[in-house]
Amino acid sequence: MHVIIDGYNVIRQSGTLRRYERLSLEAGRNALIQRVSCYKKLKGHRMTIVFDGWKNGPAMEERDRQEGIDVVYSRRGEEADDVIKRMVEKKGEEIVVVTSDRGIADFVSHRGGIPIPSQAFESLIEGSTVSPPDSTSCKDVDSANRKDEEEIRGPDKKKGPSRRLSRKKKAAMAALRKL
Fold first, then answer.
1. Taking the model in full, what pTM does it have?
2. Which residue of 10, 26, 27, 129 has the fewest C-beta atoms within 10 A of its own C-beta?
């Protein structure tokens, strides 16, 4: 499974990571990378974080590897959304994209990938880390998966054929169980 993360989208949807970003963009990025690397150590999924570089970024797309995570900075004039869409189109394995951007989520689901909301992924990571992102110790918490499934499912439990979950919600819940 390849998990692609819309970096600034996750940071700006998160209360915890947003505090780091207020210090500097680099502090926000580093905090996200450390949390995701801690999570990767537990689960072993291939992880890629994509950041916007379209305003002040380099002329060419840059790729880096930090703490076992592939980090991609879009080139100047290109948004991270475009890079994510390109990566989804090239897929050769199961793709999960973490974003709260509806346009990207729709694109991913139409291409056979599974979009996961940023808040659901953040709570999954929160449940996996013992301490703040500057720590490297990790633990696995199964209750985070159940909490995320409840968030995707909605407030009421549905029963019977007329109240079945949509295919998108079922796929998202299955992906969260794997995550």
1. 0.73
2. 26
